[in-house]
Hints:
Layout: H1 3-13, E1 23-30, E2 35-37, H2 39-52, E3 54-66, E4 69-79, E5 87-98, E6 104-111, H3 115-120
Parallel strand pairs: 1-6
Antiparallel strand pairs: 1-2, 3-4, 4-5, 5-6
Amino acid sequence: MDIVSILCQDYQRFPQDQTYSIYAADVYFRDPLTQFRGIKRYQNMIQFIQTWFINTRMELHEIQQQDQQITTRWTLSWIAPLPWHPQLSISGRSELTLNQAGLIVSHLDYWDCSRWEVLQQLFRR
Length: 125
């Protein structure tokens, strides 16, 4: 199975049963909130989402691969674990870079909104 097919399946299941074997051990991750290096930290981030977010859904709108670069467009939505159960949503894109072995060495996320706009969603009715 090619990496684009695997990613499509991972997006459908997100955050459950992700295919970590497609990532390099020293994968670099960055989004507007955090950045780190290492597959273990990446797994911990996904586990955090799986544990604390409610009804998490990752909708994949587009995925393209050109050489060693994969780009995706997506919308992530979930219910925050707060007493009033606010629904949050972030749309954005990811840029994934592959090494010569075909493993993801860099995963950069870009949001279509600011961190402040995401925080404001916690207080909407």
